[in-house]
Design a protein that fits this description.
single chain, alpha+beta, Penicillin V Acylase, Chain A, 8-stranded antiparallel β-sheet, 6-stranded antiparallel β-sheet, 32% helix, globular
């Protein structure tokens, strides 16, 4: 085999391996699916936390004076840059949020607006303590700005007990924009593509488009069948989770302020908590894995949800990436062997 052929093979081997590792890395650490759905007087908010990090916590912060109480999820003890991240939460008025990672966008300075008060900019605790409705947060961002440019690689999906929902992200003009669902739809879905930009202009991180389409198809069907419930929301999360990397999933019942928590894609068993009841107990912080230990479940009201799936799960999205990489590697070795045999014959 001549040196040019060998160099070309080595180059493509490196490219294939790097693409494979990049695809798997994006799938494992960046994927996240969030939705809000409203049907009649019911409002549900569902989310998968896809990262593979085991140090996940749930914290209850009781109300103080005029400040609302709330629950929030976060990372801790992973020796990872994401430790300390605020991953989502709900307050005692049914206002909630969660985040999707999205490709970075630059937000431009807007010094003519009032500066964000100290400690309030992008501080979800501040928002949960102060506000009750999505429109309150939208109004807050419309009035405040900064005098410098900065990059943002997250979008926040907000919802409240009235059924209003919006995703706050960087718009085409480089300013914050709140994107709502179509008026004919009773739901809003966000994955890992900036909802304010055309989908085909962004990378398909962790099968973002597939997860979006699966969620949309299922929610459309459930609404048509008048079958919106915790169970149907669970089916959506189950269909778009990643085996081994969806650390936990939760469904918020925003009207009743119930929390349904699932651990490592075990959608047959839910830990059910009522936010109002838990806030009455005072400040609490629990490692999520401990809550699913039978010896600790007595501290909270737990219920098992084991209804059969109405949809077949397409949760093994990760295996698709691995299959592609294996196929490419096998193709490479077949080509290499063929070239080796040809080289020996020519020699």
């Amino acid at each position: 085999m001549d040196s040019n052929t060998l160099e070309l093979i080595n180059k493509w081997t490196s490219i294939i391996i790097l693409l494979g590792l990049s695809s798997i890395s994006c799938t494992q650490t960046l994927a996240c699916t969030i939705f809000t759905v409203k049907y009649e007087n019911e409002v549900y908010f569902g989310s998968n936390e896809d990262s593979g990090l085991n140090g996940t916590y749930i914290t209850f912060v009781p109300p103080q004076g005029d400040l609302h109480g709330y629950v929030w999820f976060g990372y801790e003890g992973n020796d990872h840059p994401w430790d300390g991240a605020r991953l989502g939460g709900m307050n005692d008025q049914g206002l909630c949020y969660d985040e999707n990672w999205v490709p970075p966008k630059t937000i431009f300075a807007n010094p003519e607006k009032t500066p964000f008060p100290p400690g309030s900019y992008y501080n979800y605790f501040y928002f949960l303590e102060q506000f009750e409705l999505v429109k309150d947060i939208e109004n807050y961002f419309s009035l405040h700005g900064t005098d410098y440019d900065y990059n943002v690689s997250l979008q926040a999906h907000w919802a409240d007990a009235t059924g209003d929902a919006a995703v706050a992200s960087i718009g085409l003009d480089g300013q914050w924009i709140f994107t709502r669902n179509n008026e004919t739809e009773n739901y809003l879905i966000s994955t890992n593509q900036n909802i304010a930009f055309p989908a085909d202009s962004q990378p398909d991180v962790g099968s973002s488009r597939e997860r979006y389409n699966i969620s949309k198809e299922m929610l459309d069907t459930f609404i048509q069948e008048e079958n919106i419930s915790v169970i149907s929301c669970k089916e959506v999360l189950n269909a778009v989770h990643f085996d081994g990397f969806t650390v936990y999933s939760h469904i918020f019942d925003l009207v009743n302020r119930d929390i349904y928590l699932y651990y490592y894609s075990d959608f047959d068993n839910a830990l059910r908590m009522n936010l109002d009841d838990e806030l009455e107990k005072g400040y609490q912080k629990h490692r999520i894995t401990d809550l699913f230990d039978k010896s600790l479940n007595s501290t909270m009201s737990s219920s098992s949800i084991s209804e059969s799936s109405a949809f077949s799960s397409s949760s093994n999205l990760t295996s698709g990436f691995i299959g592609i990489i294996l196929f490419l590697l096998m193709t490479f070795f077949v080509i290499k062997r063929s070239l080796d045999n040809q080289n020996r014959r020519n020699g």
